[in-house]
Design a protein that fits this description.
Helix content is about 30%, strand content about 40%. By secondary structure, the protein is an alpha+beta fold. The N and C termini lie far apart (about 55 Å).
Length: about 260
């Protein structure tokens, strides 16, 4: 009975992977599924995310699956799945899982995003490599070059962009705190620096602006109200995500035309 259950797991896994290969060209066009990896001293943390490249709000479903094959060739499958709402040009974290470096066997993580009709529209996959007694993430999943012509440094590390701030009041510092919390929670990954600046404005108010590469994306006159600053932080990050998506689309189009 155990062998039959293991065989069923293997067959399901192979069908899923074959289907992913055949339909890969249809994935991640409008809705991008991406698994991000964070490493600490003992664990990998994998976070599944979804990004909407269209301006239209949409209801979707995700399935975040972890396949394990232990040293005795026993196969197991665990998954997190749920419906979710994704605003236009937005990005959200869906689910996360932690895996110890010392866990034995072969581990594969798969994220699939489905539309309302049950059709897969976004996907990502990471296969951990067992290196002696430790698991390791493939080099391609650890770093992502800014463009296809950019060579990786010898140490394999490319730094992500930073959220920089130059504020002068408590309201400005609070806005930065709320903005960065949203930035972190939505798992934004970009090589671009985001700059938050606060300058004296009208009367006793200050003006807070958010820009990328000198491109102003959002600005407003500050208020000490917490809900107002949180709303401005969300709006500003939405503007940043849209701008970064447009940059990526321009880069993709220029490569295609070339």
């Amino acid at each position: 009975m155990k062998e039959k259950k293991t065989f069923e797991h293997v067959v399901t896994f192979l069908i899923l992977l074959i289907s992913a290969v055949i339909n890969a060209q249809f994935y991640n066009k409008d809705y991008v599924g991406k698994i991000y990896v964070k490493q600490d001293s003992e664990f990998f943390t994998f976070t599944a995310t979804a990004e909407n490249l269209t301006p239209v709000d949409v209801n979707l479903k995700y399935d975040f699956i972890i396949y394990k094959v232990d040293t005795a060739k026993n196969t197991s499958k665990n998954n997190q799945e749920n419906l979710f709402f994704l605003k236009g040009n937005d990005k959200v974290a869906l689910a996360s899982t932690t895996i110890s470096y010392n866990e034995q066997g072969k581990i594969t993580l798969v994220l699939i995003i489905y539309d309302n009709d049950g059709k897969p529209v976004g996907q990502d996959r990471i296969e951990l490599n067992s290196d002696g007694n430790n698991q390791s993430v493939p080099r391609d999943n650890q770093v992502e070059a800014e463009n296809s012509d950019q060579a990786l440094p010898q140490d394999g590390i490319i730094l992500d962009g930073l959220v920089l701030e130059k504020t002068i009041t408590k309201a400005g510092r609070d806005f930065y705190k709320y903005f960065y919390a949203e930035y972190y929670n939505r798992q934004i990954r970009t090589k671009k620096n985001i700059f938050i600046e606060e300058v004296p404005g009208r009367f006793r108010n200050t003006r807070i602006s958010v820009s990328i590469d000198g491109q102003l994306l959002w600005q407003f006159f500050s208020q000490p109200n917490k809900s107002f600053l949180q709303s401005m932080a969300t709006t500003a990050l939405d503007k940043c995500i849209l701008y970064l998506q447009q940059l990526q689309q321009q880069k993709t189009n220029s490569i295609t035309h070339y």
